């Protein structure tokens, strides 16, 4: 009973944070399950993947209703992510995972630096509205209503091929290393493609569930997903994601970025160190 | 170029269908958890069903873990539902390009899930 209650509460927290930031919440769930509850890492990973799907599905309902996400960008980039994920799963063992951890870790650290620079830049959360042939061909430009700033924001984007490659790499990383790729998705849209942070996070939320569904079937049928853990956790995450998706709309993009920065800094350090054989 | 209004309508339809799918999976999981507190897991020790045949047998016998696993599996299917409904929505919008793009996503996803089932 107590452990189910703990799972429920942890799910609410992870779902809420995940929905706001467009990440899966695995980084919260895995350490709590392994360190605090002494659970085998296999079941912790199974639980994380269920949390990713629950965050994605719970928040997407709200983000669709409030017109926060960009369905075309999601589906267009989803091709890259899913292909990357399958290639990653097939290539497990071909590349050295230490090298990949270091590579992706340093990429996250570099992104942290970029995000901090953006936080302190005079232009602030400037919105890119220029024209771009790829954006026009694929009808990717869109609009959203920012409840925190109380205005309609029309936005465009650029560097779509760069974002596409980044999404492919994100999928590859999740297939090869079994890590969630929400943070990489947000970075691809926000930092590379210059999409505003809120639709980037909402769109990442929609996408990460689709990417995770394939690995979730693997974990489901190989017995990594335990009903006594996944059940209460999924309910908690669904509740948390619903709350988070409402909350996010009232947060200023700058605040969301301030929450995002320490998280990718931590993830980057953790991954880079893991590549050098140090676990934190 | 489609107007944003049309896209809105489509997004609202997807949202509604997705909500139904997520609610069903959540209700099944909750029923399973309630059954667990009433009757226990229904399985010996820490074991639980994970292949379809075992889950169906457990469901027929009203075992709580089988009910929870069914709900979790339905939850795993919700992203697939999202992609399927998106194809229909883009079709209603006469957006052939995105019907093709989203169908490609569905095919890749089904392939990956099939690989997952086989592994």
TrEMBL record, chain A:
Keyword ATP-binding applies: no
Localization (cell): Cell membrane
Major location (coarse): membrane
Keywords: Cell membrane, Membrane, Transmembrane, Transmembrane helix, Transport
Statement: the UniProt record of this protein carries the keyword Transmembrane: yes
GO cellular component: plasma membrane
Protein topology in the membrane: Multi-pass membrane protein
Superkingdom of origin organism: Bacteria
Transmembrane region(s): 7-29, 41-64, 76-109, 165-184, 205-223, 229-248, 255-273
Matching Pfam families: TauE
Family: Belongs to the 4-toluene sulfonate uptake permease (TSUP) (TC 2.A.102) family.
Protein name (record): Probable membrane transporter protein
Automatic annotation (TrEMBL), chain B:
Regions that span the bilayer: 20-44, 65-91, 97-117
Pfam families xrefs: DUF1634
Name of the protein in its database record: DUF1634 domain-containing protein
Taxonomic placement: Bacteria, Bacillati, Bacillota, Bacilli, Lactobacillales
Superkingdom to which the source organism belongs: Bacteria
Keywords, sorted A to Z: Membrane, Transmembrane, Transmembrane helix
